[in-house]
């Protein structure tokens, strides 16, 4: 009886281990996540930059800068780095230069387009045709009891 239980447990263990080894070959063992770092920068955001914008307006458009050099506060750096799961990393950089509180110059691999296309309209105008409205129930009841000649 004891030998039979050992044999059954050995065979059961063997079957489970062989099944696990075939699963390990078919299923990928490592999942690599996307890694985003820095300020999200898009061309649409950069196209909103204009000369003489104040620092506050720039923060409204792009967010707080990633780097502000404490020795030269007239330069702000924005960096956005993305590495999609296990692929090569790519980076967008932009440097903004200020004279006092006003933006004077933009450098980097994302620069404002000279004449960006206007954004597509989000509103639509529909003209409804005129129609004759029927009298409401209230108007019909009042009309029965009124002495107006219509």
TrEMBL record:
It holds the Pfam family BamE. One of its GO terms (cellular component) is Bam protein complex. Transmembrane segments: none annotated. It comes from the Bacteria. GO terms for biological process: Gram-negative-bacterium-type cell outer membrane assembly; protein insertion into membrane. It is found in: Cell outer membrane. The keyword Membrane applies. One of its GO terms (molecular function) is protein-macromolecule adaptor activity. The keyword DNA-binding does not apply. Residues 1-24 form the signal peptide. Keywords: Cell outer membrane, Lipoprotein, Membrane, Palmitate, Signal. It is a lipid-anchor. InterPro entries: BamE (IPR026592), BamE-like (IPR037873), BamE_dom (IPR007450). Its main location: membrane. Residues 38-105 form the Outer membrane protein assembly factor BamE domain. Part of the outer membrane protein assembly complex, which is involved in assembly and insertion of beta-barrel proteins into the outer membrane. Part of the Bam complex. Belongs to the BamE family. This is Outer membrane protein assembly factor BamE. The lineage of its organism: Bacteria, Pseudomonadati, Pseudomonadota, Gammaproteobacteria, Methylococcales.
């Amino acid at each position: 009886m004891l030998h039979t239980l050992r044999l059954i447990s050995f065979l059961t263990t063997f079957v489970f281990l062989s099944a696990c080894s075939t699963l390990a070959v078919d299923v990928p063992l490592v999942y690599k996540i996307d890694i985003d770092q820095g300020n999200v920068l898009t061309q649409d955001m950069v196209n909103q930059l204009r000369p003489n914008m104040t620092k506050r307006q720039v923060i409204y458009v792009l967010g707080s800068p990633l780097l502000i050099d404490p020795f030269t506060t007239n330069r702000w750096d924005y960096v956005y780095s993305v590495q999609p799961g296990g692929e090569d990393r790519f980076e967008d950089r932009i440097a903004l230069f200020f004279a006092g509180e006003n933006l004077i110059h933009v450098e980097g691999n994302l620069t404002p387009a000279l004449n960006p296309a206007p954004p597509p309209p989000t509103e639509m105008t529909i003209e409804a045709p005129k129609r004759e409205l029927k009298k409401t129930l209230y108007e019909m009841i009042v009309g029965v009891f009124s002495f107006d000649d219509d």
